[in-house]
Specification:
Pfam families: Methyltransf_13 (PF08421), Methyltransf_14 (PF08484), Methyltransf_23 (PF13489). The protein is of the alpha/beta class and 422 residues long. It has three domains: 63 residues, no CATH class; 207 residues, Vaccinia Virus protein VP39 (Rossmann fold); 97 residues, NAD(P)-binding Rossmann-like Domain (Rossmann fold, 3-Layer(aba) Sandwich). The chain has 13 helices and 18 strands. Strand 17 and strand 18 form a beta hairpin.
Length: 422
């Protein structure tokens, strides 16, 4: 089936404007990816003729506070619902990552004897389960019913709702102030930041901390990991933009920590203004960002040119392999693969199928381009000549697991930071 999003719909570097969802300043568009489907809206083959929801995927930067953000918002109910397929504990690396953070909370000496921990977007409860098992008071806030049920089955206390100021005040009334509010790969999903941070300020204990981690825009630029840009990622944070955002809501950025997960993230720690002394790491990262001119027009224009180059090189490679009679299979039906497939026009004529370990995705078709998704066992029956690694952020884990593919002569195709074969 052909891709409904043709390359001709991609307009590249643009100069349209909208208004910043943080400070109301003017947002200047710097790249238009064209029409895209919802990244996690996998299609039932029996309903393939039903109309899919498409939106314009474009990204811009605020001229005032430098916050990088999408130009158009997708309604949250379309993205986060009972059928939301992503599970945080699906990767060994990520499971260990979240469990390690929970252990840091348990070992923290400044949280008192009876801390209360709230997680925004707790997903399947992989982090909170560690705290629950240790008897720590906790609460997960998760709007996607399916994964919330998985968390509850693990003994995690969870409420099925979106977090906003009203939610925070209700939690405060029922449970008291939170010593730690945590969010992993969640805050960047939420356009209505004013309600979120007003809620955080209302719920946070006087000496409490709000810790969140999300993809770092500096790493996206450095690696040209353009597939981090999709419907669920509305904001793309830097230390400078987070510091400015926090100040608008009576909060202060007091620490930053670079993380290797998900292709490069930063863990930001906010506290009430004046409650804690900012670490040297904050000033150092802000200075580094200023030196690199992360949000300067020429920097963003160069990023767009690299994205266009990757699109052209990847499609050319896949067409050549097809014409040579080679078999190509995708590995990992990730949310970000929707950006790659729909930007490049990659359908089942170029990639036969995609393997993924998530049961809810298996037997369905990828959003927009309708590549069949199959169970992991299909990868070896028989092995393809090439595997297009959509889950490149888990490359080490996956390649070690699939060593027999390499032993059989198979080769991996990657497109971050550039198109290459290994």
């Amino acid at each position: 089936m052909s891709n409904p999003v043709s390359n001709s719909s991609v307009r590249g570097f643009m100069s349209q404007e909208s208004f910043c969802r943080v400070c109301s300043g003017k947002v200047r568009e710097f790249y238009d990816f064209g029409r895209h489907p919802l990244s996690d809206a996998f299609v039932d083959p029996e309903k393939v003729d039903d109309e899919e929801f498409f939106y314009r995927l474009a990204v811009g930067v605020c001229r005032d506070c430098t916050m990088v953000q999408l130009m158009e918002e997708v309604p949250r109910e379309r993205m986060f619902h009972d059928g939301y397929p992503y599970q945080s504990s699906g990767s060994v690396v990520m499971r260990t990552h979240f469990e390690d953070f929970a252990k840091r909370v348990l070992n923290a000496e400044d949280l008192g004897t009876d801390p209360f921990v709230v997680e925004l977007g707790c997903n399947d409860g992989v982090m909170l389960k560690v705290l629950a098992d240790a008897g720590v008071r906790h609460l997960g806030v998760e709007p996607s019913g399916g994964v919330a049920d998985l968390a509850a089955a693990k003994g995690v206390r969870v409420i099925k709702t979106f977090f906003e100021e009203e939610t925070a005040r209700r939690i405060l009334t029922e449970h008291g102030p939170a010593d730690v509010i945590y969010a992993a790969n969640t805050l960047c999903h939420i356009p209505y930041m004013d309600s979120i941070l007003n809620g955080v300020r209302a719920l946070l204990a006087p000496d409490g901390v709000f810790v969140f981690e999300d993809p770092y825009f500096g790493d996206i630029l450095e690696r040209t990991s353009f597939d981090q840009i999709y419907d669920e990622h509305f904001f793309f944070f830097t230390a400078r933009s987070v510091r400015a955002m926090a100040e608008r809501f009576g909060l202060e950025l007091v620490d930053v920590e670079r993380l290797p997960v998900h292709g490069g993230e930063v863990r930001y720690t906010l506290a009430r203004s004046g409650a804690r002394q900012p670490s040297n790491a904050v000033a150092e990262l802000v200075a580094e960002e200023e030196t690199k001119r992360l949000t300067a027009p020429d920097t963003l224009s160069a990023f767009g040119e690299r994205v266009t180059g990757i699109r052209e090189e990847l499609t050319s490679l896949l067409r050549r392999l097809r014409d040579e009679g080679k078999t190509v299979v995708g590995y990992g039906a990730t949310a970000k693969s929707a950006t790659v497939n729909n930007l490049c026009g990659i359908g089942p004529d170029l990639v036969s199928f995609v393997v993924d370990s998530t049961p809810d995705k298996q037997g369905k078709l990828t959003p927009g381009t309708h590549i069949p998704v199959r169970e992991p066992e299909a990868f070896s029956g028989p092995y393809p000549d090439y595997a297009l690694l959509f889950a490149w952020n888990h490359a080490d884990e996956i390649m070690a697991k699939e060593q027999r593919f390499r032993d059989a002569g198979g080769q991996w195709i990657l497109y971050v930071p550039e198109v290459h074969i290994v």
